[in-house]
Amino acid sequence: MKLPLVHFFETSFGRIDDKHFILVRVDGDGVTGYGECVAEQDPYYSSETNATVWHIIEEFVAPRVLGVEFAHPRDVFPALKAIRGHNMAKAAVEMAAWDLFAKQRGEPLSRVLGGTSDRIASGVSIGIQRSLEELAAKVERELAAGYRRIKIKIKPGWDLDAVEAVRARFADVPLMVDANAAYTSADAAHLAALDRYGLMMIEQPLDYDDIGDHAVLQRQLKTAVCLDESIKSVNIAREAIAAGACRIINIKPGRVGGFSESIRLHDLCAAHGIPVWHGGMLESGIGRAANIHLSTLPNFSLPGDVAASKRYFNPDLIDPPIEVAADGTIAVPQGPGLGVAICEDRIEHATLRQSTLTKSEVGSAAGPKAQV
Ligand code: OSB
Ligand code: MG
Fold it and tell me: What are the backbone dihedrals phi and psi of residue 8, each rounded to the nearest 5 degrees, phi first?
């Protein structure tokens, strides 16, 4: 799919104007489930791209799930164990299975995931802007819309001044920064200069596979380190926590392989006193609804990057869109499954390419398509 973004989004990796993503639909027993994949066009946030996801689902995931009877969606991720990595591809299919399961039971997804709340606290992620004035104006608008915490993207050359500009005008706003791995351990003293701004956390300052240096950096900072890109699995999270590499973890189901792995990660963090919050990947309303449902689990104690549809897409793929209340919270959809109404005509309009896979077309997991 290709959906134009209302505003460009710029991070330390670069700028995007349109969101390109894969939407997975699964059909079974007369019920349909949807899973939005969070892979992007470029392998910058993660090594996966839309092209790798297409390949992995078609050749390796589909043969392991089509025509297979699963007692519960938590059995889907283990069925994909032979496939190393490719968590975004796995998650899109696994999350569609959860939606289908919840719809079969006629329950909201939040309930089958084990969630406990009916509203979630919402924050915003503000990209790198053209000027500090534009940044401050954007923060002001988002606070007026009700959002409960502000995250700004930083990179070398857009960091201390940007935080200073926001703090100078909004002394008490819950504020955090996300570097998307733009620094190295040689920048420790520079990053420590952020300590004086009372930030909630600094997200992913160092490289995407660097637990060791994050552990050293965390000891040099007063500000809590939060890991995003680094937490590619529950096992890595266990190592990061043991090493003291972070005090907070951001959960994105796509990064860890879906909802069941996200629940394991959530529970692991809870057991270690690590608060979590739900990250965002500029999802359409479909993926956004999935994020809202997962955010109802009890250890999601910090506001997430789960904001209203209109910040991203106009129109969104769902109607009504997801909206934020004046108190900065979002209501959890109460219908079966994702609980949102998908606009088929908008899906059709946004679709660039589609493929329908059935059991007979993909063959068995050990069949000819799986051979190299
Ligand atoms: O690092 O959290 C991130 C968007 C794309 C890729 C990575 C990230 C982000 C965001 C945007 O911060 C969050 C959102 O508003 O969806
Ligand atoms: Mg991040």
Answer: -60, 155
